[in-house]
């Protein structure tokens, strides 16, 4: 039997990039998956089609995680479609870089609304349905350890994600719900392409500081998330697993 057979998962921001790979990895292990998207309906539909073509179960559900009603709708879709919820992966995220002189209120609120408030709102909706054996995986970043220049706001959101992971591990542990984070190093995704990271000096620097000698692929992260979601990780909670080819 596959490791997630009979489980139901919500993956936020699964229309592309790391989230899409996570949705496929969980489905490949037998989970039925809610593939959330904010603006990329076509991307989410493609992820669902790929999962179904491989013999899995998935449904695309739109919603902005930073809006409480949408967050509840994303979670409710799992329960309405598949009857339960076992796994939540808080993957939705935005990242833009700005030197201290260039930080604006809009830059701050955009990042904290999606990366922190959104994670809290979806988790709040999910904990109504998660029972014993439930697993929450938050996608943080290695930036919370390496604190790169010009990333004060983005890095602050991921520091908050690490802190929330620790707090909720304690808060939800008595209910036998585990809460962990995966902290990727640089990964080639639609997002890092459109941010101009791929092909830049920043990518060259990232490779040079990575013992395994390359940047990550979405599947490198997805397999770690699938492990944390599964019973193989039953004794792990409150952990932040750095998945970065050794960069830290
Ligand atoms: N790529 C990296 O190098 C890297 C490294 C460390 C950590 N991370 C983290 O990994 C996560 C995914 O990154 P990525 O590179 O795969 O990003 P990406 O390619 O830009 O994809 C971002 C995803 O988040 C969704 N999203 C954005 N705003 C949302 C909102 N308000 N509500 C719901 N979904 C929303 C997008 O949905 P739509 O497209 O439908 O709008 C998309 O599915 C992020 O949390 C990021 O901080 C990435």
Topology:
Blueprint: E1 8-11, H1 17-28, E2 32-37, H2 41-53, E3 57-62, H3 68-82, E4 87-90, H4 105-126, E5 135-139, H5 143-146, H6 152-172, E6 178-184, H7 190-194, H8 201-208, H9 218-229, E7 240-243
Parallel strand pairs: 1-2, 1-4, 2-3, 4-5, 5-6, 6-7
Helix pairs in contact: 1-2, 1-9, 3-4, 4-6
The structure holds NADP nicotinamide-adenine-dinucleotide phosphate.
NADP nicotinamide-adenine-dinucleotide phosphate binds next to helix 1, strand 2, helix 4 and helix 7.
Model description:
- The protein has 248 residues and is an alpha/beta fold.
- It has helices at residues 17-28, 41-53, 68-82, 105-126, 143-146, 152-172, 190-194, 201-208, 218-229; strands at 8-11, 32-37, 57-62, 87-90, 135-139, 178-184, 240-243.
- The chain has a single domain (8-189, 217-243), classed as 3-Layer(aba) Sandwich (Rossmann fold), CATH 3.40.50.720.
- It has a seven-stranded parallel β-sheet with strand order 3-2-1-4-5-6-7, with helices on both faces.
- The protein is globular.
- The chain starts with 7 loop residues before the first strand and ends in a 5-residue tail after the last strand.
- The mean pLDDT is 98.
- NADP nicotinamide-adenine-dinucleotide phosphate (NAP) is lined by residues 12-13, 15-19, 36-40, 64-66, 91-95, 114, 118, 139, 141, 184, 186-187, 189-192.
